Amino acid sequence: MGIVRAQKLEPGSKIGIVCTGSPVSPERFQLGCQAIQSYGYEIVVPLNPSEFYGKYDHGFTNGSAFERVRSLDALLDAPEVSVIIAARGGYGSMDMLPLIDFEKVRSARKVIVGCSDSTVLLMQWMSRASLCAIHGTSVGSCLADARTNEEAKRSADALIAMLTSPDYRYSIPCEVIRSGAGEGVVVAGNMSMFTSVLGTPWDLNFDGLILVLEEVAEAPYKIQRMLTQLKLAGKFDRLAGLVFGRFARCTAQHGPQVGEVIKSFVSDTLSGLSFPVVMGFPFGHWGENQPVPVGCRAVLQDGVFSLLEPPVG
Question: Looking at the domain assignment, is residue 59 inside a domain?
């Protein structure tokens, strides 16, 4: 794939905050910014991510797609900014895709960090700009809770460590659904977003990749449907490995729960495939959200998910 490592976060450099989707509450935005500052970094905010909080002037987003892309461009152009972090997820990243100049993204060589709705941007950072991106906490999620919640603090600490150290690695044991070993480039994110781009120019070839999935607030039958849709689209046919993270608040009063859905899907629908599959990786909404570098190589072996290379250098 020819992925290039982004520039690392140096002491004294600044972190840019971009609102890729929905507005974030002023309180959570302030808490997230305070957390970033507590690590010793200043912030650059070209577009106030709370400007349309509680308003619907632009539907579900914090400003028009053009305004949000213009704020991204401002951060790409700013020499003092080496890292860009999404303010929150929600909805809106897909609207930005046709307006982004990915050649400019490639030239700027800046890593972007985000989760949930930002998944589609992480995919394109890798596929169109040939840069690593990081699926990690947004400003309004774990960063906002880092001072009061231990899981959030671990997530934020790990993100800063990954951004600042080319030597950063981890090996995390998971629950084995199907044993084996696989090595490949990692792509990680929200399953709804992966299914949302199917059949569009923004779709991604998963062949040879290790796919890391998470989801939030979807009923188990919807999880089953999205997994089936990805299977019918051929996304599982030539994977190197499959990692299930947290499926937060994906519950139902009756019928199979999400863990049963995942296990039965692997044993039945994916029975003809041999790549390793694990679940329980600490990644996703509402809990510990370990950073996962999209575009970097990893290995999944004996139930352990291990990073082989960093996203920055």
Answer: yes
